[in-house]
Design a protein that fits this description.
Rossmann fold; Arc Repressor Mutant, subunit A; four-stranded antiparallel sheet; 8 helices; 14 strands; about 45% helix; about 25% strand
């Protein structure tokens, strides 16, 4: 899962990032309003964690901007202020949850998982695409009832395709979703093709239709 953490407390930011990466997430960070704004305008995320008190602006205003361009993004407001007004304002602006500092990192992980299930998959723990069943709670994939052995990246790629059916996704978008800021240091995106090739081969071999369609000079589409 790809997350953005907007937090100016560097110790907390490092602790959150380390823990969430260990839980299998891809984490990007922003230390102030300007960095956060640039990130949400340039990239998409499953969940954005926003501290209310950040330099050069206000977290609630950043939330407003995020919801204006990507209303389906899951959002959790994080603040040291246990203020009812802040909580109400954040929820009215579209935040999915509100977490007051200090908090335990396992609780944060649980909140993220709950928001993701509720927002992206409408509470369902299984996404069905004809003969393909994706179980988001166990990260397992079945085709016609038989389990398919996918690597973590292949699973994430299939889930990303299934969540964006019939939309053209560029190689850059796919790479950023699966690998985050790391792709900025790479010379090319050939590895995206290789992962898609391996995923397609496994799905077809297990009895699925070949839904992954190449779109010349742009990227790929999961055509259903």
């Amino acid at each position: 899962m790809k997350l953005l953490i907007v937090e100016d407390n560097l110790d907390l930011l490092e602790n959150m990032t380390t823990y969430l990466k260990r839980e299998g997430h891809i984490c990007e960070t922003a230390k102030d309003y300007r960095q956060g704004f640039d990130k949400i305008m340039s990239h998409s995320y499953e969940v954005v964690l926003i501290d209310i008190m950040i330099p050069h602006g206000n977290g609630l205003e950043l939330l407003r901007e995020l919801k204006s361009v990507r209303p389906q993004t899951g959002t959790i407001i994080i603040s040291a202020k246990n203020s009812l007004d802040d909580k109400v304002n954040g929820l009215e602006l579209g935040a999915d949850d509100y977490l007051t500092k200090p908090f335990q990192l396992p609780e944060l992980q649980a909140r993220i998982k709950a928001v993701t299930r509720r927002n992206q998959h409408e509470g369902n723990q299984t996404i069905d695409v004809h003969e393909i069943s994706i179980h988001t709670n166990t990260r397992e994939v079945e085709i016609n009832g038989e389990t398919v052995d996918l690597t973590p990246k292949e699973y994430d790629l299939l889930l990303y395709f299934a969540s964006n059916k019939n939309f053209v996704l560029s190689k850059q978008t796919i790479a950023e979703h699966l690998w985050g800021d790391y792709v900025d240091h790479l010379d090319n995106l050939d590895f995206v093709y290789q992962h898609i090739k391996n995923l397609r081969k496994k799905l077809v071999a297990a009895g699925a239709k070949d839904y992954i369609e190449s779109v010349y000079s742009i990227g790929y589409k999961f055509k259903v």
